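Researcher: Quick one. two chains, 734 residues in total.
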Amino acid sequence: MNKRGMSIAAAGLVALLSMSGAAAAQDSGKPSSLTMLVMDSPSANGLMALAKTYQSKTGIEIKFVTVPYEQLATKVILAAKSNQATYDLAQVDAGYLPQIVTAKALVPLDDFIKGDKQYNYGDFPEGLKEYAKYDGVSYSVPLSTEPYLQWYRTDLYQKLNLTPAKTWDDALANAKALKAAGDVGYGGVYDASASAYFYLSLLQSSGGRLLDPKTNKPLLDTAVAKTVMQRYLELAKYGTSGVESATVYDAVNSFSQLNVGQMILASGWWSTINDKSSSKSAGLVATANTPLSKDGPYEPVSSLFGWVAGISSSSTHQQAAWDFLSWALSADNAAAFIDAGAPPPARISTTSNPEFLKKLPYLAAAGQATTDGLPLPRIPELSQIITAISQNISAMVTGQKSLDDGMAAAQDAVLNILVQSGRYNG
Amino acid sequence: MTTVAPFGTGDRVDDAVTDLSASTVRRRKSIGDVLFVIPTWLFMLVVGVVPAALAVWLSVTDQSLTSGSGRFIGIQNFVLAVFTPRFVGSLGVTLVFVMLGLIVQFVLGYLLAAALHRQLRGFQVARTVLLIPMLLTPVVVGLVWNFMFNPDLGIIGAILSLFGVSVNFFANASLAIGVIVLIDSWMFTPFVMLMLVAGMTGISDEVRQAASLDGANWWQLTRYIVLPMLKPVITVTLVVRCVDIVRLFDTIYTTTKGGPGTATSTVSLISYATTFQYYDFGQGAAMAIALTVLMFPVYFLYIRLTKV
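Model:
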């Protein structure tokens, strides 16, 4: 290529790059479509059902990109980091919100929320608003609220004249009675990757905490942490034959297919367990608040989990994206969510609506959990901590480590993670 | 082309001109050869050298997807992620998988290859059927086997319960390792078999017949004739499988997720978790680099044997 040719090619390339940069930066007004990153879940199904109505109302098509759970946070972050407007909206596990926000992958929504009468943020309990925030800023809005609840089989409880447990001692007594009757006493999760969610939920409901709220010092070496772990391991003795390696999916399968009397599980599984086409337990389950015991210095509380929805910082249609969220998650669409088999956002008006409570009896317990429940610590290192504790739970329940060794190793691992990240320097 | 010699030395001038032309042609040919190779070089540069160099650079920076500025921090990532009991433990687990996997896959692969080599009736159908596992996606295979081994709902548990046996394979470290080796062997023994069958067809029947005439039994034939003659094929096959097993990830991720405890937690698994769950690219890269360096002897052996 001669010099002139090369100059023209270079100039063309520069012009092309400038144009693409400009296109990425500007908000081109009303879009013809928006893209939302979701995981295959009842909540995503609810949004998909509403998207068709939204398109007919506004002409804006909502395209959904479904990815596995493990990739959800990574995709959101990568899209933002590469500054590609791949997604406008994203469904996010609230537990990962700190990681995603730290990567600057979501935009603050406070300005959008403020004054949006249709969305009516005042209809949410304060605890739930906090759940969608990080460092006091709303980077997301509640999509589904799925606190851990006590699930039990009404037919088995009726047969044995049992009542839902109020305390963890009651839960243990129920597990013994169920096992003595030939049923499964407790459906637990003890695998090496996610069992810590369940242990930590038990810890919070027993007056313990993972971290000191003021200093971030890990508290797994405290008496309450050991007592609760002992109780958690004790419950495994009343589980299914596969309980020692059970993932949450194994536990849900067992609860759906076998005579498992009780378990602790997020409320979002309601439609799955009550699906008559695949679950033998459909119509035979009920929920109650998580058992509470005062074994530690903190207030015993249930644990909050759930999905939130946010707007990608690389979106070029942020206002349009908010308009969709505001409409889809408004109180007016709660019924549509429920009809689509999805857990609705836990607005006060939704969890207290008699008609909705009739359709989804768990909403009463979920509503209470949203007012007095607590999420796990909102720090970016949480997923690393969950793995470290889960591995030790798995080692303890399978007899590879004693209770003392396992708890000491878990405390040490969490301490290392927090010191390395600079979150705790004690 | 000829040139008139001005001073009566025509032959030498002609030779010189001819030499010049030959060297020009050689040079042009050489440039032409280089031009043909350039696309391959560029491809290798883009998909091989650049990512490898980037990984090395990442391993000495504090680069993270969520935070970190990408500044140079020396060997800190190696200190925090590689020279640790966690990494050494997972390296030990990886080596266990390599040893067990190679032994099981070689023994089974050899027996199957020997059977196929005899070309009994239906051997072509048997060969096709045996190759099917190798064609399946590891993630799907892992999920299916995981469900089969589920103690409460899986078919293997159901069969064992008929004999009054109740075993949770994923709650026992040795059994969990055994299950992973079983799944990997089910998938890749056919590869070993295929390689060995190809090697066996290269051994002359006359050699076997001569040994048989001398009274060699099956074991002696195998020990003193077949295995020595298959040595190059066996070595290359085992080296390829060794590298593959070191990278074993999908099967573990879809079955045990590294448990019970950390009994099946390999270097690939912790490297993945560090990079894509904790988003610490620097430490993830340090682990990958360390594993690559540890595998250098195997790579050199492979290169030497295949004379690449």
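The mean pLDDT of chain A is 91.
Researcher: Thanks, that's what I needed.
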